[in-house]
Amino acid sequence: MKPVKLTMTAFGPYAGREEIDFSLLENRKMFVISGKTGSGKTTIFDAISFAMYGRPSGDNRSAQEMRSQFAQAGQLTEVELLFELKGCQYVIRRTPQQEKVKARGTGTTIASATAELSEITDEGKKVLLAANVRDTDEKINELIGLEANQFRQILMIPQGEFQKLLMASSQDKEKILQKLFQTVFYKQVEERLKEKADILKKEAGKTVAEQMTMLKSLPLYSHEMSILLNEEDVMTDVVFKQLDIDMDMMQREHQSMKENIVKVGKKRDEHVAERERGTTLNRQFDALTQSIEVKRQLDDRQEQMQLITVNIVRAERAEKLLSYEDHVQKAEKALVLAHERKKEAMQNETLARVQFDQAEKVLKREESRQPERDKAIRHYQQLESMKESVYAFKEAVQNESICREKLVNAVASGVRLHETLQEMEQKISEAEHTIKPLELAGERFIKADRLVEKADQMLELHKEARAAASQLSTLEAEKKEAEQRVAEAMQKAVESKKQVLALRQKLKHEQAALLALHLTEGEPCAVCGSIHHPKPAYSGDDDPLIRDEDVEQAEKHASLIEQKSYDEERKLSSIQFAVNTLKKEIEKMKAKLSEDQTIEDVQEMLQGAKMDRQKAEHDREKKQQLAEQLHMFNQQKEMIVQNIEQNRQIEAAEQRAHIEANSVLAQMEKSVPDQMRNVAQFIEVFDQVKQQVEQDKQQVEQARTVYHEWHVALQSAVSILNEREQAMVEAEASYKDTAAIFSEKLLENEFIDEQSYQDAKPFVDHLLPMKESVELYNEEQRAIHMKIRELEKTTNGLERMDLNKLSDTIDMLNDEMNEWTHKAGMLAAQMSESMRTKEAVMRLSEQIARVEEEYRLAGHMYDIAHGKNELKVTFERYVLASFLEDILIAANTRLVGMTNGRFQLERQTERAKGNAQSGLDLLAFDQYTGASRHVKTLSGGESFKAALALALGLAEVVQNYAGGVSLETMFVDEGFGTLDPESLDQAIETLMDIQSDGRLVGIISHVPELKERIDARLEVKQSERGSEAIFVFSGEI
């Protein structure tokens, strides 16, 4: 990144628009920035940093505080930077959050920060890349490849920052390097390891508890198992051995139960078969009795079935006559209908003749009134010709009235508008008088708000200090408790180890005593080979024997106690670290607080500031409301004035319209008679005449229509009557023929008369059901006779069986078998549950072993990463030390040149005393003495050289680790005044080496020799109206 042009407006000491064109340097790669103290040299760095990242170059200034105090109220603070990056040109423009004058009305408002980034094409056009602060920040980070802290460390070394990294403690260097190299990831690795270890520890404890719960839930079978499960420390292997014994006993008992179930079941089945045979026989006896009863009932219905058979024959003969009867009935209905239709036609013919005669009379009467109708038509035509003139006169009268009313309204409106204008001018005068004392409310609010913010920060610091002190007291108490637990745990661990040693010794003694039992005088010992045994080992009979398992169990117990001791030590170390950290935080807080200012003083100051801010805010809001009200009044006044002018024009127009309407009305009065000027009366007469003409016309037309209609109707009625008289004759002949044929068919089917046919006719509809009932009766008779013969044959010589006794015996055997089945099922379920529990406990044992191994590994890795190692170096600090080594390599290449090879910087690798953090402190190796010493022992000039070399090395390494970003510029602020001429030459040579690779180097300095050595200067001149900057060149390169 290389700056091309920097433009500042109302920024710092630069009151107006200040433009610095770096392209004027042409091929020069180094220049000096000179000027008086406070003139604004460092502000140039602040402007570049603000343009790129929205913040100044130092941490002691904010972007909002960079507004120029020389600037005019209406001028906004703004910075614009044109820069080159990787062959492309970009322009970025930013404004900070600031107070500005309102666009409308009076007073001020807060303008939000803005940012805009564009790329300049080869044709000189701007292509917008980002239009707001967030997008611009993201795009700059993407283009530059650096965050703000990294950019500032590489691009510029601000005033007072030279020796900050050089002299910083190991802990402070860690914070600086953390920001530059973003090593929070390594700290997160350490925290993740701790979280992993804690999770594994909890998981192991949870799994052990789950395993114990499963063991306790084992179904009890034997008294021995009950004793084992009620012990405080349940031994899994012992429980499993007893469970195997119990399982064997349960399996044998379960097999015996199954044999009893088979035995009782076989006996039950024999009785069930016997009961089934008895049930079948008894059912056959019951069926025989029921069949005999059914036969008796069928015999009782025989006479009824004979009667149904006779009715079936009669219904079949009657069914043949149904169609003939239907023909007779239809012919009879046709005859009746023909008679009725003839009667109806005769009535219609008589009515039509009467109506025709009457219509003929009416038509002749209407035709005789034709002269009267002609007279009415002439009267109507006369009124029609006068209609337009009557309406025009009415419209002229109405128009004159409307114009007169509008003129009166316009005159009244003008009077009201002048009165309103006077009232509005009075309101404007009162508002201007009220707003004048509130002009400074905005400034008073800003001052009070800053004081509230400062008091809030101090109060929060007091509260944090109190909370930290309370937390420190709690931690001290926890520390004492932890120390007590550590001492107790260590004592238990020692005692458990002693018990293990005692058990081992006793086990050896008992093993020796066991061997001694088989020793015989004169026979060699299996251990030492001696044939004499003067003092064989002896074990008392009262003490219980020690097993290898007992020793192993004691060792495990001792190992757990020792692990608990280690855990307590880790907890104590963590608490101690927290105490030390909190003490340092408290010291920092005390350093920031004034000793003679209590929290009550701060609260009192805060309360007063809040009241002042509230009063100023109230006045500012009131001022704002009054300004808006005054603006509204002025707008209303302008509108009233415009309305008065518009009303004046309207009044003149209405006056002209009224005169014209009067003239038109006078002309109409000459052409329209007095009796015709009432439109309503004219319309009434006109409508009556018109209605009479239309009514006369309709009457004559209606008379002609009615006459024609009845003439047609009479002819039609005569024709229909002739047709229906002929139909009557034909219907009478058809009825006589069908009646004769029906009588013949009655005799053919053995019906003596029509009544006997009608008696048989109802059975026709039931013919099919009657046939089916007869057939069903005959079939039932045959079936019941056959069934009785078969049952008599089956039961011949047999008797009924007693089934209740057999059922009682079967129920008793079922109960016995169910009892054995239930017991066997319960026992099988107990065995299955025991096996499932055993398998689950075994799986949990494997899981516990795996989790404990993972916990051991994770805990060990966390201890290493947390600094519990020989060098007391954490994982993150180890990585930072590697970065620092790279920085020192780059720095020493420059420091050797500036000190004629005398000094080299190196990292202190020795462990610090106590628990102090180490690994990042710097030493200076002196070739003259052959020894290393702390950098704080260097002189002023030596420390400047070392700091400059370290800063240049840091900039190089940060740039490399940032992905080789292109930063072709560096600014250095002050520090050269402490150097002698030779050292100054060496420092300049070092900077010359930097600019030799194309990097632009700018130096702020008051040293005359430096100005003489470098021919390009950016002079910053200070005046009462603000500062200005201009390039001055003393020669050509």
Automatic annotation (TrEMBL):
**What binding partners and quaternary form does the record give?**
Heterodimer of SbcC and SbcD.
Provide the coiled-coil residue spans.
414-506, 572-626, 803-854
Which keywords belong to this entry?
Coiled coil
Rad50/SbcC-type AAA domain location is 5-203
Keyword Repeat among UniProt keywords: no
Q: GO terms for biological process?
A: double-strand break repair
Annotated GO molecular function terms are: ATP hydrolysis activity
Q: Which family does it belong to?
A: Belongs to the SMC family. SbcC subfamily.
**Record lineage:** Bacteria, Bacillati, Bacillota, Bacilli, Bacillales
Q: Name one Pfam family in it.
A: SbcC_Walker_B
Protein's recorded name: Nuclease SbcCD subunit C
Query: Can the keyword Coiled coil be found in this entry's annotation?
Result: yes
